[in-house]
């Protein structure tokens, strides 16, 4: 276990309550290794063929066919096919090139958030990532609640559904969400095998429904003329139609919801045998195949489904309470292929929508632990899967109640999360292309960024509820993260401490004269006068035994916003002074970690000597939390107290 842990070791499992042991099972493991659909495969895992992984991301992407045609009809009315064409153009010419670039820049599933994290230094980068995590949480959480709500709509509207299910959209949605949580509490394995079956069956059934609808339209060509005449009557000219389609297409943004998931599952792609972690060329190539194939397939489904549903379904049926509300293709399945086939279609739709929620939950369980623990912004229990599952389920229940399990009402929040992730991805792709000197690509990605920015702003203006929900997630993440960072600020925060050859020699020479005497020094002039004056005053004020050697320890804060870092101690001998230099995330934490490593290396408890710092204690505390320094002596002592409860083994702190 790393040196960043608190001093109190966990009790043996036999000494803890059974429910607590079960809840925190796997706490010391990395959460990204949990068996969810997006989990990072173990080293011995060889991965899967790209088309199988496409089914894994497809449970999120393709499942939007369950509600996207109905939402498009409500948003654009008779112009739904034209608005869908605009959406397809943005998908193939915007989102697809962007995420192909993201796949190249982050081949290990980090996604666009990790790309942007590298752009901003210090605390600005961390806060920016936390805001993006808020939008990502909105996307994934609303995926869970919206998919469950749409699945319940398919169940309730089925003609074979028992009477006691009628009007039960709310409780059915809650049951589906609870079942989802129960699966993850138990454990979720073989997700790709399940996804392949669900996606294959679902897409086959959709092909049958759409072929039947096209056959129906072809047999009654007058229906196309009626649709066009009605659309022309509402709008003065084709140019006006195109203008309206451009204005309303942001409401259809749900049809692009699978791209971020497609990048997140990259570690599951097998790639080539010659791939390495540094150069996974095969994985990048196959992930691009995955993204392109999924986008082309989905574009075809969206275009045909929007035409079929707009022409064949009366407009009133799309309204709230209508038979096609949230289930347009299911409506066609029942109307044109019979109730038996329609029921099979409903069951398949319910299954894939439910599994889309599983995909989203797994995404959350991998996204949150990827960043927050590294920032020190997650409590200790966030390293276990089950507490996070319970937390996310409670949030999903709350969101479902707030939106009354209504698919249409949640569309704004869903689109907001999707669009922000795509906006961030396009911006990250623009910066990456610029840094690599690819000017045409940077200009193209920049234009796509502007388009996504317009789409996002338009969506927020028309449906501000999405931004409100996202703001709640952002505020919640910021507050809990900062509170956790303050709580964990007194941990060692050094993942590993090593000494270079010179440092090891200086330590070994000094320890021959007895316990190590280490003077903490903040370098200023770094000349002989400074070091000799410092040694003289410390010997006088803290009564260092005369004649014995001392080591100066100088810590430089590299980035105080980092939480845990690997620490390398370098040695130098000049002016007859022995100096150990080290970089860390915080001065007191780094000193404490080095002192403990010195103890373990030499077998003797070292003594550390400090000066008091002038100033108000509160201002010093704030400096420590933000800049990593402040009043070093008492904080070092507190870090040591938490890290080593045994007084006889705890390094001694002397202050003069």
**What is the subunit organization of this protein?**
single chain
| Total beta-strand segments | 7
Strand order within the widest beta sheet: 1-4-5-3-2-6-7
Tell me, rounded to a whole number, the average pLDDT: 83
**Uncertain regions spanning at least 5 consecutive residues:** 1-16, 28-38
Structural class: alpha/beta
- General shape: elongated
Brief digest:
This protein is an alpha/beta fold and 656 residues long. The protein has helices at residues 18-23, 50-61, 68-76, 80-105, 111-117, 122-157, 169-186, 191-219, 222-234, 238-248, 259-264, 281-312, 328-371, 385-402, 407-435, 439-462, 465-487, 501-511, 528-542, 587-602, 617-627, 632-643; strands at residues 494-499, 517-520, 551-557, 565-574, 577-584, 607-610, 652-655. Helix 2 (50-61) packs parallel to helix 12, helix 6 packs antiparallel against helix 13 and helix 7 (169-186) packs antiparallel against helix 14.
Describe the fold and architecture.
The protein has 656 residues and is α/β, with parallel strands linked by helices. The protein is 62% helix and 7% strand. It is built from 22 helices and seven strands. Helix 8 runs antiparallel to helix 13. The radius of gyration is 30 Å and the shape is elongated. The N terminus is likely disordered.
SSE inventory with pairings:
Blueprint (H helix, E strand, L loop, with lengths): L17 H6 L26 H12 L6 H9 L3 H26 L5 H7 L4 H36 L11 H18 L4 H29 L2 H13 L3 H11 L10 H6 L16 H32 L15 H44 L13 H18 L4 H29 L3 H24 L2 H23 L6 E6 L1 H11 L5 E4 L7 H15 L8 E7 L7 E10 L2 E8 L2 H16 L4 E4 L6 H11 L4 H12 L8 E4 L1
Parallel strand pairs: 1-4, 2-3, 2-6, 3-5, 6-7
Antiparallel strand pairs: 4-5
Helix pairs in contact: 2-8, 2-12, 2-13, 3-4, 3-12, 4-10, 4-12, 4-15, 5-6, 5-15, 6-7, 6-13, 6-14, 6-15, 6-17, 7-13, 7-14, 8-12, 8-13, 15-16, 15-17, 20-22
């Amino acid at each position: 276990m790393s040196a960043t842990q608190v001093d109190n070791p966990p009790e043996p499992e036999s000494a803890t309550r059974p429910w607590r042991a079960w809840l925190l099972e796997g706490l010391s493991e990395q959460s990204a290794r949990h068996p969810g659909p997006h989990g990072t495969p173990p080293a011995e895992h060889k991965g899967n063929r790209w088309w199988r992984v496409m089914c894994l991301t497809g449970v999120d992407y393709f499942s939007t066919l369950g509600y996207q045609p109905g939402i498009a009809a409500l948003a654009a009315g008779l112009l739904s096919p034209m608005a869908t064409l605009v959406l397809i153009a943005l998908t193939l010419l915007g989102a697809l090139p962007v995420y192909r670039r993201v796949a190249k820049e982050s081949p290990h599933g980090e996604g666009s958030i990790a790309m942007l994290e590298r752009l901003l230094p210090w605390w600005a980068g961390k806060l920016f990532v936390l805001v993006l995590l808020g939008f990502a949480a909105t996307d994934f959480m609303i995926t869970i609640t919206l998919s469950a709500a749409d699945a319940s709509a398919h169940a309730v509207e089925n003609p074979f559904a028992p009477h006691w299910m009628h009007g039960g959209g709310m409780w059915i949605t809650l049951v589906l969400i609870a079942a989802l949580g129960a699966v993850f509490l138990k454990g979720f394995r073989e997700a790709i095998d399940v996804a392949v079956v669900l996606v294959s069956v679902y897409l086959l059934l959709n092909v049958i429904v759409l072929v039947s609808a096209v056959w129906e339209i072809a047999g009654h060509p007058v229906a196309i003329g009626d649709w066009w005449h009605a659309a022309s009557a509402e709008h003065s000219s084709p140019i006006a139609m195109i203008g309206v389609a451009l204005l309303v297409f942001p409401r259809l943004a749900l049809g692009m919801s699978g791209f971020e998931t497609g990048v997140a599952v990259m570690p599951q792609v097998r790639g080539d045998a010659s791939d390495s972690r540094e150069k996974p060329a095969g994985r990048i190539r196959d992930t691009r195949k995955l993204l392109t194939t999924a986008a082309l397939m989905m574009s075809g489904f969206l275009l045909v489904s929007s035409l079929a549903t707009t022409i064949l379904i009366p407009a009133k049926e799309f309204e709230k309470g209508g038979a096609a509300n949230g289930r347009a293709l299911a409506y066609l399945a029942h109307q044109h292929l019979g109730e038996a086939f329609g029921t099979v279609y409903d069951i398949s739709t319910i299954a894939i929508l439910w599994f889309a929620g599983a995909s989203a939950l797994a995404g959350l369980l991998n996204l949150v632990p990827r960043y927050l623990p590294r920032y020190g912004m997650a409590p200790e229990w966030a390293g276990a899967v089950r507490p996070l599952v319970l937390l996310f389920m409670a949030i999903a229940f709350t969101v479902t109640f707030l939106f009354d399990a209504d698919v249409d009402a949640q569309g704004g929040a869903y689109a907001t999360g999707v669009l922000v992730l795509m906006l961030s991805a396009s911006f990250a792709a623009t910066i990456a292309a610029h840094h690599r000197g690819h000017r045409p690509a940077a200009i193209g990605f920049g234009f796509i960024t502007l388009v996504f920015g317009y789409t996002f702003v338009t969506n927020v203006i028309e449906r501000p509820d999405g931004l409100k929900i996202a703001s709640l997630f952002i505020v919640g993440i910021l507050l809990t993260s900062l509170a956790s960072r303050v709580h964990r600020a007194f941990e060692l925060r050094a993942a590993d401490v090593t000494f270079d050859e010179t440092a090891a020699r200086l330590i070994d020479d000094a320890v021959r004269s007895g316990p190590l005497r280490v003077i903490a020094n903040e370098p200023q002039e770094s000349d002989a006068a400074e070091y000799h004056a410092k040694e003289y005053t410390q010997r006088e004020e803290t009564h260092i035994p005369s004649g014995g050697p001392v080591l100066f320890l100088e810590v430089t804060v590299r980035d105080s916003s980092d939480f845990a870092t690997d620490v390398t101690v370098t040695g130098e001998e000049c002016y007859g002074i022995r100096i150990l230099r080290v970089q860390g995330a915080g001065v007191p934490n780094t000193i404490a970690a080095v002192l403990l490593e010195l103890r373990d290396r030499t077998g003797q408890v070292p003594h550390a000597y400090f000066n008091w710092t002038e100033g108000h204690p509160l201002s010093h505390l704030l400096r420590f939390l933000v800049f990593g320094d402040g009043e070093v002596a008492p904080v070092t002592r507190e870090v040591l107290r938490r890290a080593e409860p045994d007084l006889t083994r705890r390094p001694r702190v002397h202050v003069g």
